[in-house]
Amino acid sequence: MNSQKKIFSLRVIVQVLFFIVLIPFLPLLISWRWGWWETWVYAVIGILGFVISRVLAAQRHPDLIAERSRFMQHENAKPWDKILAPLMGLGGGLVLLVAGLDALLDWSPWFSLPVKILSLVIILAGYALGSYALIENRFFSGMVRIQTDRGHQVVSSGSYRWMRHPGYAGALLTYLATPLFLDSGWAFLPTGFITILMVIRTALEDRFLQDELEGYRDYARRVRYRLLPGVW
Q1: What is the pLDDT of residues 199-231, one digit of tens each?
Q2: What is the spatial distance between Cα 61 and Cα 27, in angstroms, rounded to a whole number?
Q3: Does pTM top 0.85 for this prediction?
Q4: What CATH number does the domain located at 2-222 have?
Q5: Per-domain residue ranges of the chain
Q6: Which residues, in sequence order, are CB contacts of 196 under 8 Å at separation 6+?
Q7: Cα dihedral sign for 144, 148, 150, 155?
């Protein structure tokens, strides 16, 4: 009962309503183009992806949702992640903000239907990969820290057999395809910002885990690539 109260606190409910329900509809709210079907599809995918992945993760790891609900509240989170984590959240909102302004002011030409279909497939693949990582990894926290209170161990199953940070890889796929699906060339600017932040965060987190999480250095020898198999 106490853990449920922690999960469903007013702060968490407000955050979910804002970031998971309101933000995906930001392009619609800004442009006022209610017939813009791509934004409806994008928002529904984002909301359903969040709900389904959390339900599946909660069934497998009930304590994981409580862990993630304490975002920015962990005392032992790394100082650099207290900066990078909210910046990445801000960057995600900026992508949709710019896409909405782009549609309102007609800054960019629309992309062709085949490009949109391909980008939609990439978005879905990104959500699938990120959700798979979340469901597989009991220690998929929103902040970089050693979870001694939860018996933190190396996870090497599922998508972690292919790369060391599949959650970031899935998010990156979705971010990179979003400007194409929402007809916004200008949205590639905040997408580039997020990409840089994600690469920096991946590198810092990986180095931190190799230094402080028992068994991770051996895992890193077996799984060579951090974010992009065959490249890095």
Answers
A1: 999 999 999 999 999 999 999 999 999 998 888
A2: 34
A3: yes
A4: 1.20.120.1630
A5: 2-222
A6: none
A7: positive
